[in-house]
Input
Amino acid sequence: MKNRIKPLTIVCLTGLLIAFSGCESFLEKDPQGALTQETFPTTGSDALLAVNAAYGTMLDLRFHSGIFPLTDIMSDDARKGSNPTDQSTEIGPYDNFMFTKTGNELASWWSTLYMGIKRANVVIEKVPLITMDETLRSRYVAEAKFLRGLFYFDLVRAWGDVPLVSNLTPSVDLARSPREDVYSLIEQDLLDAIAALSEKGQGSGEPGRATKGSAKALLAKVYLFQGDFTNAEKYSVEVITSGKYGLEPDFIDANGVNGEHGIESVFEIGAVGLEAAGGNGYANVQGVRGTPNRGWGFNRPSPDLRSSFENGDPRLKGTIMDLGDVIDGITILGDGTTPDITRDENGTVLETECYNRKVWTPGTDVPTQFGHNRRILRYADVLLIAAEASNENNKPGQALLYLNQVRERARQGNDAILPDITENDKDKLRLLILEERRHELALEGHRFWDLVRTGMAAEVLGPLGFVVGKNELFPVPQSEIDISKGTLTQNQNWN
Amino acid sequence: MRSIFFRTSVLILLLAAVFTQAYAQNRIITGSVKAGDTGETLPAATVAVKGATRGEITDMNGAFRIEVQQGDAILVFSFVGYDPQEIIIGVQTVINVVLQATQQTLDEVVVIGYGRVRKSDLTGAVSSVKSKDLVKITSSSPEQSLQGKAAGIQVTSTSGAPGATPSVRIRGVGTFNNSSPIYVVDGVILDNISFLNSADIESMEILKDASATAIYGSRGANGVILVTTKSGTIGQEKTNFSYTGEYSLQLLTKKIDLLNGKEFAIIANEIPGDPEYNNVDMAPNTDWQDLIFRPAPIHSHQLSAWGASKKSTYYIGIGYFNQQGIIEKSGYQRLSVKLNNTYNLTRSLKFGNNITIAPYSQQNEPGVVFQAYRAWPSLLPYRADGTYAGVQGVGNPMANIDYSNSFNKGVRAVGNMYTEATFLKYFTAKSSIGIDAGYNKGESFSPVYTVLYYGGTESMQKHTKSSLYKGFSDNLTWLWENTLNYNQTFNEHSVNAVAGYTMQNSNSEYLNVSGENIIRDGSDFWYLQYNNVSGVGINGGLSNGVGDYYSMISYLARANYSYDNKYILTATIRRDGSSKFAQENRYGNFPSFAAGWNISQESFMEKFSKVSKLKLRASWGKIGNEKIAYANRFSLTQDMVAVFGIGDVLYPGVTYGRSGNPDLRWEVTSQTDIGLEIGLFDNKLTGEFDFYNRITDDILVDLSTPGFLGNGQGSRITYNAGKVLNRGFEGTFNWRESVGELTYSIGVLASTIHNEVLTVGGSGGIDSLLYGGNIKGFLTQSRVGLPIGAFYGYKTDGIFQNQAELDAYPHTGDAGIGDLRRVDVNDDGVINDQDRTYLGSPIPKVIFGLNGEVTYRQFDLSVGFQGQAGNKIFNAKEFIRPDAYNFEQHVMDRWTGEGTSTTEPRASYGGYNYIPSDKFIQDGSFLRLRSLVIGYSLPKATCEKMNMTEFRLYVKGSNLFTLTKFTGYTPEIGSGDVLSNGIDTGIYPITASFSFGVNLTF
Output
């Protein structure tokens, strides 16, 4: 017995000693499968990954105004869509400006835009510190600045004064900055981007990345929204004269699959046809509902939009798909639970079942819709910006030149329709250009902003419920105000 | 000479007379002695004449024969462990006696952390639940049996689905993160005990106060439940077998009162838009609840064998449990194998193991409860050709069940091996390795299907490509504990000390894959091939990562000293280091002190003979908690993709993901407890009362961060940012008595909880409100002065009856005549978010239980009630309405014109009247008959003829009725997330069940 105890004791004590010695390192457990932010980005390949991630924000469905096309639904161009009960209490109220500030769509849009800004800030703040190829490094930073400008542009249009985050360590008590300061940052970012980016096809990287032209076009638009028509004209004309862009001969291709990364594309979001990472649900939200099943059917073109087109304008069928249409060999039958025609008490047609033609991709299933490349900036938009700015700068001749280029493409060789506009009067031309924007860019998310910035919203949207002094801006999401304990204030008249 | 002779003869004559006298008065008394608790005869019991030294012992059959003399008045019957009885002899010649077992002796041993201690030496608050109480409820999880059996513990079902584990709370809700206690099963520290078969459990000890839990320091902040499983006993060498078989039938006891087809049609016609019914009487009527629920059986079998030899003991338990759910395609099966052995290797060296291996299989129902609640009753469930008919906005629940195939299968192995050496007479050294290993496979398959509406058009309920999801996960936790125990009693001093060092490591990993276009629907084909040709693609459907990855090192020491069985002192210290915190904050120290006074042992108490036990105890201590995800202190990166190029090519991207907090440190609970234990009338009446006060500080909680920090919607960062108070009383009363062959006991227990948030926010600087329950905005707000997870929303007060009323009171733009009037709580003339206010708490103020047991001869009966009061339930399923759905019955009382209703607004599918408000808050108090068991045991003689020791038949009812005002299926709405507790989003109902079964021991 005694003989066995002694060796046993030694064995046990040794074991314990071994255990004790391994102490501290035993408690060091590093994260598995993920880098810590201290170790990324540190190389040239890390920098590319970081920039790509910033672009990836735009594949998040919530980037597209919180999943649903809110601005188009609010405008006179479209109604909610889908069947009558789907999202009737969440999105239905956007039809008549009766929505509230607790909606999930606004909270998710706000958060996703700031998520994109943070990803851009990772590049802008960290990549300059990396030792790598000079050209690539400055290009990556410029791309990130373009994206940051793009994200802030959405924020400032939607909410006006917003917290300004330009580095990776913002204070948690940040208050809203005046919109002028936000616009200043956007302008500075875009100017920096313009300086460092190359023209399309000349060292700008893969199609889909920001180019010098993209940055100039965006900057022109930013100036237009602020009423700085001189700069708006300057930059839009530079894009036009660069010779890198043109109009697709077929209007359908301007948004369609054949024109992806084509001559008219100034900046678009690439996507693959998968209902998974890499796919973009934007087109699925507006896709044909029912048969063929391409999506949920939101953003239904309104009778008002339909009747606003000039006689014979092919862009009507280029914008609106009706039941019975045969497109790419596929017949559009629509949805059983959506009434074909809805009328109000007086018998006036409120809406007919129809869908947004511009998000159509050839095919009969849902995943293919996820491959639609949404155009953020296209050449026709640039031409119209140039036209509007030129008109405001008292250059009607130049304005008409650009305006009629758009109409020429639209009429597609048929001289009997869409005659050139010859109006020289500034005020009348302004309205004509606004109307042309409506027909050219319908259901692409521009109409509501165009009405607000030109001061026409009260007149055009008043009958739909637009309240002056309130509906020019969206309400700051209630959850954000709650979390900030009131440091973030609400927009006027939204209490 | 002559005088001596004379004296001697007188003496002899006297003696003879005496003897003759005595001889004439002696008689024989015979009879038998039985034990009251087992009903068996008691061999070797003592039968003695009171006041004399004469006595006999009962024989093998408990029979005795004693000679008594004139003058002997009383016979005393006694046996170790039983209360002695005195019987007056009188003129009887046959006396039969039934002795009753002594209740709760002072020497009863209680299991505590890292040791055992006599109940009289215990300074902590510990409740004990024994094995016979654990088999009164038929359930897959042993925690369910604790409901209503011990004061201070609240067990709430989170779902009635088979295999669901309940949420357990000891002394209130301690923290914002994980408030569950830990379980220690035969020394292995676990987070859940779903693998355990209740029949294998010997006892469960619930450690409630700081003194009892301090030895578990870092994990004991929310209480500790010690589980001891069965084993053989050295000396009892016969092998015992036991079999229990049970069959139960589960029934849904209560349906929710929804509108029928015609009523729904009437309401729908009042709301503009589809559906419209030309003739409401012709509207079809489908009761969807009747369609999805059906009675379902539970089968359970348990076979165990135990015994010992001279040097070892063994216990083998095999249990099979099979529960089908009341919704088709839901169910849970488990096989549990238990092996407990001890081996005395030498006189002072012992080796033992406790191992459980439990394979299980669970089928998950597809979430049709909420669908059936919402589906229009005015639709037929099947089309004319017998196929499923589509249901607007929701989908056909029957089709959903049919097309769902979702399983979880796996194995859980929990075990412990230890060696124990005794040396130097008083020391015991023990080293044990505990392992918790599990492997789980989840799979879910959906075939191609299209559900058409009755009229033939396609509904949205369709699946164009078959899809398969598979998830694999494994986890391994090992715990190595080394302790040194010192136990010595000398004179009146008794010392019991332990010191130890433990290490723990926990790892788990998962792999999830999904794909589509599976060639056939059957389960033989549920495998994924990455194969471009046949179209099965797993693009984007693969994720692999780590779940747990943390470790802990601990040092512990405790000393217990008692003097003369009267005065007891306990001191405990524990130091833990966790890998979840950075080096500066890694270690936490958790001390505790306690004292006890056995007043009943004092000499001055001897005159209060009725008082058999009186003990006062008090304790204070600190315990820690670190139950957060292992990587929360790190700021990590996150992967995603972008798409560029003419061909739409995927490019990888990496960016910053969740922000971490490197300053995280231990969360600490300080608890004070004062307790009083009383026993009266030889412990026939016992009571235990405690007052507790727990403050948890530096609570680890995820706080919502502003969206502009860019972490994405709903992102949160962990901070040490909260302080919570839980305070209350616990009381238990038990009365136990035996009268002849009748034994009965009644127990009443109640606990009160006062839960209050003391601070939120703080170093995080984020906010002083913690939101939870994000359904249509946040439903709960945990703010200073209110309980955790307090409900908040608008208060309502009647209906706007006409335009004048509408104009007279502040209202939002979308309010109209016939709508609810929201109260302007802050009187500022505007209805906005500042008018949302406290609406009630999901935490009950009182939890109570009532238990009764009666045993008479061969029959036994036990009944158990449990309930709670003072909590509210947020009926969220009623206001989540993004589409047109069915309604609850009260909607029929709606406002249809001035004066028609003051409580129920005008009919609408959603919108203004369905914003969260007190309209949807209901009283969650209830009283439930939790268990009723009636058993009959065959008489001893009959058993023996069959070579058995016990043969018992029983019938059992669980959840037989519930008294409550709540309109949902069940008022038990538990949740693992304490910030969204008590919110009913359409949970799987809890059922009543009726069982019959048989226990055999041989």
